[in-house]
Write a structure and sequence with these properties.
Blueprint: E1 6-9, E2 15-18, H1 48-51, H2 54-57, E3 61-65, H3 112-141, E4 144-152, E5 167-170, H4 179-191, E6 197-199, H5 207-212, E7 219-227, H6 242-261
Parallel strand pairs: 2-3, 2-4, 4-7, 5-6
Antiparallel strand pairs: 1-3, 5-7
Length: about 270
């Protein structure tokens, strides 16, 4: 399914892969309001649709938005409450780059009314489709897993201290999925030695993971935040590194296979 907000590929396995920050479109009418640097979209989760394309052959569903996170962040709550209190956060409609620099020309950032229009036009349709597709898959299998895929530059002092581990699995501190699923995914990460990894570290899962993960109701949600350096250079022009991506691919495939094979305790 393809609509103005997202592309959805429907699968039959009990898994929906969501890539909420992979979009690269800023509507033409809005572009003059951003600083010129913003049009390079430097904070995009680059190349994730390509990296996760393999899930289609495994029977999973895949949803990818068209628009950039600079328009609206689909992984933030609609009330715009901070995801990680006590540290710097980007907003529902971001006004800063991940470096902390202003994203908009002075005085051109969206006001409260425009933010609500963007929520209605972009955020709600994406989340409604997440709900609809999860319900469809759960009706087929009795349970369903939402896997929220992300990537980020490994060092961003405005957002976090030091360098991130390569692979950051988030389960909202164990509340968004069953403990045995969390353990199985953690084991996949621990059995490989190519990439550093952590579970529920700095990135525990954003709004999508926290709001859709209801393991008691047969709905499990997991987030993976990967450093760009696992598959690409971290400086422009942000092209994919085929060799690095080739090393990452078996780990992603093992995680996805683990989720597809997961069977809840009776």
């Amino acid at each position: 399914m393809n609509n103005p907000v997202f592309a959805l590929h429907e699968g039959t396995a009990p898994l929906l892969v969501s890539l909420p920050h992979a979009g690269t479109v800023i509507p033409d009418a809005l572009q003059p309001r951003y600083v010129p640097r913003a049009l390079a979209l430097e904070d995009t989760d680059w190349h994730l649709a390509q990296l996760y394309e393999f899930v289609l052959d495994m029977g999973a569903s895949l949803i990818v938005p068209h628009n950039s996170r600079y328009l609206i962040d689909l992984n933030r709550p609609p009330e715009n409450t901070p995801m990680y209190p006590g540290v710097n956060n980007t907003e529902l409609c971001p006004t800063r780059f991940f470096t902390g620099d202003p994203l908009y020309i002075e005085g051109r950032a969206p006001d409260a009314q425009e933010i609500q229009r963007r929520v209605a036009s972009y955020w709600r349709p994406y989340h409604a489709e997440l709900e609809s597709e999860l319900a469809r898959l759960q009706a087929m299998h009795g349970h369903v897993i939402l896997f929220d895929g992300h990537s980020i530059k490994s060092e961003l002092p405005w957002l976090f201290e030091g360098k991130l581990p390569d692979l950051n699995l988030g389960t909202a501190s164990g509340t968004s999925c069953a403990p045995e699923l969390r353990s199985a995914l953690q084991q996949v990460l621990q059995l490989q030695s190519r990439f550093t990894q952590v579970v529920d570290g700095r990135f525990k899962g954003g709004h999508i993971t926290r709001s859709f993960g209801r393991p008691a109701l047969g709905r499990h949600a997991v987030q993976l935040e990967m450093c760009w350096s696992t598959y690409m250079p971290e400086e422009p022009p942000y092209g994919i590194d085929v060799a690095r991506a080739g090393e990452l691919a078996p780990v992603l495939r093992a995680l996805v296979q683990t989720m597809i094979a997961y069977k809840p305790h009776a």
